[in-house]
Design brief:
Helices cover 40% and strands 15% of the residues. With 390 residues, it is an alpha/beta fold. The chain binds pyridoxal-5'-phosphate.
């Protein structure tokens, strides 16, 4: 199907109807598959015959999701995982060994920081955290045993970017692999593999589902790295995706492009409105000309995404007042949903950090993060205005 365009592939790639010729992708809710003979069982276990035999290893509904996402990201292989964190863990287990060193952006999903600093270090892997957009800092952090670079762009919650192409060149000069967490953009807005990254990780829980129902994740890259090494971690480690969840994500991918367009459109309008509001000190959105990396965002992404953060004048009290005056927006840390969600990072997602760490990451007490949903933008603005008045 490779001669089709993105929106067609998002709907049709990976579909492999059964003998019933069902039109909509079927849900194969089965843990195992039977064999016609002892010979067939032996051949399938040995890998001589490619077929599904146990859903920890492979399943037709999950395979549809993997093939579809691989095509959309432009990768040779994709493996689906139980959650986004399982995808990141699978990459680390598949690529690294004791004695290896990783350079990671400091501005990554909070749980990724905990996984790296508190768990992977127990197995003899060393981490250094650097400022995401500071390419010299990445260069200087490289050691002879550096094996991997890890970054998320745009970052959460302050929408900082890194030039993926430039970062991939630095990684490759040092014989390290570049892993990009592409959750915020999805392949609709950004294709890290085409820009030089070696591996893309996803939390399908976010925009790929898009309606806040299922947990899932994915790793995309080439056949050797992802199709063999990281697949092996899943086959043996067992953090595979549930077929039910894969079925939901298959449907999610079909509308992803359409949804991302509206997320971006609503986010742009909200960012412009907040930017002009007298009670707002600062707005973080790559689509604003005032964003320090607006030009890079225009070059690297096809649109600016659905995440908008802003600092309200008056610190924590003013920020909490906005949150507590809402009548519609959901107060929850999840993102990428049709429903608009709001969080106060300093006391929730980034509450476990020290004050110094928060200052370094620009997480001020007045900061609020919004995952702009698909409701009418007039209602989103109206709901926020309750706590911004008086
Ligand atoms: C949510 C998220 C993850 C982790 O995904 P889970 O599905 O919650 O395990 C990783 N990276 C980013 C950027 C996320 O937003």
């Amino acid at each position: 199907m490779s001669d089709f365009n993105f929106d067609t592939l998002a709907i049709r790639a990976g579909n492999d109807p059964s003998s019933f010729q069902e039109h909509s992708e079927a849900l194969f809710l089965t843990s195992s598959f039977t064999f016609k003979s002892a010979e067939e069982a032996a051949a399938r276990f040995a890998g001589d015959e490619k077929a599904h035999f146990y859903s920890r290893v492979s399943n037709p509904t999950v395979a549809c999701f993997q093939d579809r996402l691989a095509v959309l990201e432009g990768g040779g292989a994709c493996v689906a995982t139980a959650t986004g964190m399982a995808a990141i863990l699978a990459v680390m287990l598949g690529v690294l060994k004791a004695g290896d060193h990783v350079v990671s952006s400091r501005s990554i999903f909070g749980t990724s920081t905990h996984l790296f600093s508190n768990y992977l270090t127990k197995f003899g892997v060393d981490f250094d955290f650097v400022e995401l957009s500071d390419l010299d800092a990445w260069k200087q952090a490289v050691k002879p045993n550096t094996r991997l670079f890890f970054a998320e762009t745009p970052s959460n919650p302050t929408t900082e970017l890194v030039d993926i192409k430039a970062l991939s060149e630095i990684a490759h000069q040092s014989d390290a692999l570049l892993v990009i967490d592409n959750v915020f953009c999805t392949p609709v807005l950004q294709k890290p593999l085409q820009l030089g990254a070696d591996i893309v990780v996803h939390s399908a829980t976010k925009y790929i589902d898009g309606q806040g129902r299922c947990m899932g994740g994915a790793v995309v890259g080439n056949n050797k790295l992802v199709g063999e090494d990281i697949f092996g971690v899943l086959r043996n480690g067992g953090m595979s995706m549930s077929p039910f969840n894969a079925w939901v994500f298959n449907k999610g991918l079909e509308t992803l492009s359409l949804r991302m367009q509206r997320h971006c459109q609503n986010a742009m309008e909200l960012a412009c409105w907040l930017d002009k509001h007298p009670k707002i000190e600062k707005v973080y959105y790559p689509g604003l000309a005032s964003h320090p990396q607006h030009e890079l965002a225009k070059r690297q992404q096809s649109d600016f995404g659905g995440m908008v953060s802003f600092v309200v004048k008056g610190g924590k009290d003013a920020a909490w007042k906005i949150v507590n005056s809402l009548k519609m927006l959901s107060i929850t840390a999840n993102l990428g949903d049709t429903k608009t969600t709001i969080t106060h990072p300093a006391t929730t997602t980034h509450g476990r950090l020290s004050q110094e760490q928060r200052d370094a990451a620009d997480i001020s007490d007045g900061l609020l993060r919004i995952s702009v949903g698909l409701e009418d933008i007039r209602d989103i603005k109206h709901d926020l205005s309750h706590g911004l008045e008086g």
